[in-house]
Amino acid sequence: MRLTDIVSFRKDLLFNGAVQVGWCETDPPRAQKAAKYYVFHGPEYHGVAQDDFEVGSHKLIDTANFTLDILKRITGEIADEPFALAIAGYGTGKSHLGVTLSFLLGAPDSKIAGQILSNVTMADSSIGHQMQNILTGLNQPFLVVTVNGMQDFDLGGEIIRQILLALNQRGLDTGVLEDLRPRFKTAINFTESFFAPLENDFIKHFGQVSSVKDIVEMLQTQDEVAFSKVSTIYEEKMGSPIYAMGKESLHDFIRLTKETYCGTGKPFASIVILFDEFGRYMEFAVQKPHVAGSGALQQLFECVQAYGDGVFFLGFVQYELKAYISRVAPELREDLNRYVTRYETVRKVRLSTNLETLMSNLLEKKNQAEILRRLKGAKESPDSIQASM
Fold first, then answer.
1. CA-CA distance, 165 to 185, in Å (whole number)?
2. Which range is least confidently modeled, 127-136, 162-171, 200-209?
3. How far is it, in rounded angstroms, from Cα 250 to Cα 306?
4. How many angstroms separate the CA atoms of 353 and 71, rounded?
């Protein structure tokens, strides 16, 4: 009997070496598969120990306890600050965990969430049952915003776009939010009214593949890039761009979203912002503030701080925040230090890893009976076991 008759290596679960939180929107089936097969480990299965780090380092926590802790905080069972930063090095599965949390919190009554809870229970039955009880008692999903910090975008616009997309997918009326930014309504009306006579202009800016329906859908989610293109066409034909009016700030948008859609008897329990590669985005924000938005990270912090009873921020970083300062040009370090100083005050934990558990998940047991038989003979010499293969 060959080893391949007993086990096989699941290359498909490697996801080409990296999981991306952006899959939650761009490739849902792939994201669901990643979430379904995420391997948790409990407090008894640390791949590294607290002693491996310097005295005074942040608390080392396993992924099962970490997920339970986050769940308790966003449901108010632990009354504390509405922020958390998880530190884990490159390649340790931060993005994979982010995707998993997105599905667990965004659709806690789904089959995928049930599988995720089963995976937690396999790692630690007590933690799994606690999480099940919390979600069952809540009976509400969270409005999850999953931000990919590896991409370049206007931060406020991206958060607003994702919130509107989530509301539209559930068929909820977003009129109260759209009224905050009437320029998008103007852009939609202009597109619907003049797309046909100005089709060549729209093709010039959007490309051949775009239809009026595609453009309107982007504007309905308040996509800033789409708006900029429509505004350019508008200016070319009308002599002036579409001006911003109303309350444009992220602060007002988050406040109104929380008040309108979150809480008892409303569609969502609260807002959860999962920010993957947060450190890398901080670098980008000071390198290209004209793209990220002036003071965007400051606005985000103040939003979460002000509405912490209904908004929670979870960021994933590779290093201590201060380490990112040395990675940017000297003339940008003072600007980055302002953000670091602000977020440095929030609660931080260091995620432990367990390579053995991860590798075990990649090995599919094709012949469980044979594996058990081999384990019973584990006291035999290695030579005799090898000879029987």
1. 16
2. 200-209
3. 12
4. 20
Q: What domains can be seen in the chain, in order of their start residue?
A: 3-164+247-358 (3.40.50.300), 182-238 (no CATH)
- Distance in angstroms (rounded) separating the CA atoms of residues 81 and 313: 10
Closest CA to 88 of 116, 108, 66: 66
Q: What is the pTM of this model?
A: 0.82
Which amino acid is present at 323? A
How is residue 335 written in tokens?
């600007």
Count of residues in the chain: 389
> What's the pLDDT tens digit per position in 286-317?
999 989 987 889 999 999 999 999 999 999 99
Percentage of residues in the chain with pLDDT exceeding 90? 63
C-alpha 159 chain-centroid distance = 11
Rounded CA gap, 126 and 160, in Å?
Answer: 37
What tens digit of pLDDT does each residue of 348-380 get? Answer: 999 886 665 566 556 655 566 665 666 666 555
The pair of structure tokens assigned to 134 is 């919390």
User: In what order do the strands lie in the sheet containing 83-87?
Assistant: 59-61, 348-351, 83-87, 311-317, 271-276, 143-148
State how far the Cα of 389 lies from the Cα of 386, in Å rounded to an integer: 5
In 3D space, the residue among 66, 77, 133, 131 whose CA is nearest the CA of residue 104 turns out to be 131
d(C-alpha 47, C-alpha 147), whole Å: 28
At 49, phi and psi to the nearest 5? -120, 160
Comparing C-alpha atoms, which of 316, 304, 321, 311 is closest to residue 275? 316
* HEC secondary structure over 28-83: HHHHHHHHHCCCCCCCCCCCCCHHHCCCCCCEEECHHHHHHHHHHHHCCCCCCCCE
